[in-house]
Specification:
With about 140 residues, the chain is α+β, with helices and mostly antiparallel strands.
């Protein structure tokens, strides 16, 4: 094995370890803010030349309990899911549905036009459309000072 290859492997391992530490710190911070880090919002991010479209599954979450923020290159989705209680005396045999406060932060590689962003929610599916900032295309002359 070449020396440069070994260094690359070591760097990739170090990167993985640093990412694990950062992920743990983020989860700790989310928990201290009252977010249950057990629940993960399932997400698909679709990108084309001029837009990101983000799909999040939020079953049982009401539209008025979802908050979306964009700051710098990060999209933050917060929501609250109410606990559904059954009336009368019941015994739960299995409980897998989550409730409480949830947070998902997504990093977008390219800047977006937040003023033109759109979001809609239907049957537990949140769809967020984020137009990218238009880049100047074609030939542009750059002046020399």
């Amino acid at each position: 094995m070449q020396k440069g290859t070994l260094n690359l492997i070591e760097l990739k391992q170090l990167k993985r370890e640093i990412n694990d530490v950062i992920d743990a710190l983020i989860k700790q911070n989310e928990h201290s803010l009252g977010f249950d880090h057990v629940f993960t919002m399932h997400v698909d991010i679709v990108e084309n030349d001029d837009m990101y479209t983000i799909y999040l599954e939020l079953p049982g979450v009401k539209k008025q309990d979802v908050y979306i923020f964009y700051h710098r290159s990060f999209l933050e989705i917060r929501c609250h899911k109410q606990k559904q209680c059954l009336s009368g005396q019941v015994t739960y045999r299995l409980v897998e549905r989550n409730c409480g406060n949830f947070l998902r932060i997504l990093e977008l590689e390219k800047p977006i036009n937040a003023n033109r962003a759109q979001a809609c929610m239907n049957n537990g599916l949140l769809i967020i459309r984020l137009p990218k900032v238009e880049e100047k295309r074609g030939k542009v002359r750059i002046a020399i000072d």
